[in-house]
Write a structure and sequence with these properties.
homodimer, Dihydrodipicolinate Reductase, domain 2, globular, 337 residues, alpha/beta, aspartate-semialdehyde dehydrogenase activity (chains A, B), 16 strands, six-stranded parallel beta sheet, Asp_semialdehyde_DH (chains A, B), 2 domains, six-stranded mixed beta sheet, EC 1.2.1.11 (chains A, B), 8 helices, Rossmann fold
């Protein structure tokens, strides 16, 4: 058990869910502290029935903290993670800043828990669109060795934070009333529209969000020969990312085998009955920690391909849940020592 | 010129646009008539400033019509097309019913105009999701021979007709007000949600909409060795279908070549400048007859692959415009005789 734990970025969209999860999952600790930027410091939040005051994050504050779970913008994580690690505080970081650092393990507990061993005080949790995909890939990869992935995403506005969610609702209200609306989080209108750009231009016409799906997948599986072609699209959905995924494997996987493999994997829920109109939909996966798969079928365009549809709550498994699961593994490995 | 022309299904979502297009494009005729089911017969519509009464479609009525452009449900087309053809009326049919009939050419004027030759009085126009895809495929196929297509669609509610569009708006209004709404056109809520089923279960876990994209593509290119893996998803967008498309070709096509090939193709508009945040989005393509392509990039997962994003107004190029273009070709071929 860690004596004193902290949530860094406690007032954000993901921070709020980390708080919920620590309650729900009875995460062990003696003391808990809530940190945020200067702007949010002083905010009062209720946790397990008690009122707490959010503290400003400073280098010194981490001297009194043993484990920090961080969900902050990249620039904040760049600063606070070294402050914490230097003072002996273990950090599970949700931001994008440290993920590709060779000294930092990038962990999805269902996929590569072994990467946690010999960590140097800082562990990264992957990007939301990567996490749900690698959870679904894992049993297929173990069985048939994945050589190639073609993925098109349908990403919710909550991926752009609370402001993204507010934008969608306010934009939709304005549109329906025939009024103009000035978007805050998006550079193009998202209500009743699609925006085929998430992140900034990064590599040969691919965006930063798309390249995260390539590089993080390689790092998590420890195999950069898996070829990944991602297309990331923002859709007018409040929460839960969806992905149309096609994998090609060395060894053929039938639909029946895939369904069994998925069903036997902790963290995956199979909802796959087209005849009865049953498949995962974002509005129904909201608030769930699982990665949902459905529409499982053999690829009509290759001999060893499998196509499926994958939905997961990007604020939960895509962010908060994965970070808390990493923290739980750290607690377990302490107990084992 | 055809002496007397008719629009069958004149009061529907696509019928309304066919009317607009005949005006806009100054389609030649001496007399025009508007037909619909018994339910809509008697409706008054204004066309070129004159009031017309919609007539009920009967077998006999086609004796006085030389060219009919039909946009009706499949079951209606099954009935009326033989009535018309038997009476010497040429039919351009938008429905799905006749498309795969070996005696009926399936035509996209930019792709296979030659299929019109020797028609037997009935010509089909493809499904909306197929049409925009094959227009984009055509220049790539001619240059590099496409062997495989992986496509994930983002299809607007207008594909389910006027009721689909009303459902989205009413459903969104109710959701924002915290009220329930009973959907008419969709079996699952579509506002702020995604539904990974369009059409009915058809073949090995694929839906009828998905299999249309396979079979119609084969018929239009006259090549059933092109392997197609489609995933069709309904999204909360009013109008314009979007598609994330990956093609693999025999001969490699670079991004620069693809951009040139697309730009040189009538009917295609290239909007492709990620650095400036420019790419096709459904809200901006609404009301345009073109097929828009953007986000053109080399496939990171194969050696001869090309990925791009394709948006088109499904009521226009996906339906009305394509049918009117076929009718225009028929007028031209008459003139040539």
């Amino acid at each position: 058990m860690f004596e004193t734990i902290a949530i860094v970025g406690a007032t954000g969209a993901v921070g709020r869910i980390i708080r919920q999860l620590l309650e729900e999952r009875e995460f062990p600790y003696r003391n808990i502290r809530f940190l945020a930027s200067k702007r949010s410091a002083g905010t009062k939040i209720t946790f397990k029935g008690e009122e707490h005051v959010v503290e400003e994050m400073t280098p010194e504050i981490f001297s009194g903290i043993d484990l920090a779970i961080g969900s902050t913008p990249d620039e904040t994580a760049k600063e606070f993670c070294p402050w914490a690690v230097e003072r002996g505080c273990v950090v599970v970081d949700e931001s994008g800043y440290w993920r590709m650092d060779p000294n930092v393990p990038l962990v999805v507990p269902e996929v590569n828990p072994e990467a946690l061993e010999n960590h140097r005080g800082l562990i990264s949790s992957p990007n939301c669109s990567t996490t749900q995909m690698v959870v679904a890939m894992k049993p297929l990869h173990e069985f048939g060795r994945i050589r190639r992935v073609v993925v098109s995403t349908y990403q919710a506005t909550s991926g752009a934070g609370v402001k993204g969610q507010e934008d969608l609702k306010a934009g939709a209200r304005a549109f329906l009333a025939g009024e103009d609306y000035q978007y805050q989080a998006f550079k193009h209108p998202i209500a009743f529209n699609l925006v085929p750009q998430i992140g900034s231009p990064k590599y040969q016409g691919y965006t930063s969000e798309e390249m995260k799906m390539v590089h993080e997948t390689h790092k998590i599986f420890g195999d950069d020969t898996i070829r990944v072609c991602p297309t990331c699209i923002r859709v007018p959905v409040d929460n839960c990312h969806s992905e149309s995924i096609l994998v090609e494997t060395e060894k053929k996987i039938t639909v029946a085998q895939a369904r069994e493999l998925f069903a036997a994997t902790p963290g995956i829920k199979v909802v796959d009955d087209l005849d009865s109109g049953k498949y995962p939909m974002p509005a129904q996966c909201d608030g769930d920690d699982a990665v949902f798969v459905g529409r499982i079928r053999e690829d009509l365009s290759s001999d060893n391909g499998l196509a499926f549809w994958c939905v997961s709550d990007n604020l939960r498994k895509g962010a908060a849940t994965n970070a808390v699961q990493i923290a739980e593994l750290l607690v377990k490995s302490q107990a084992a020592v």
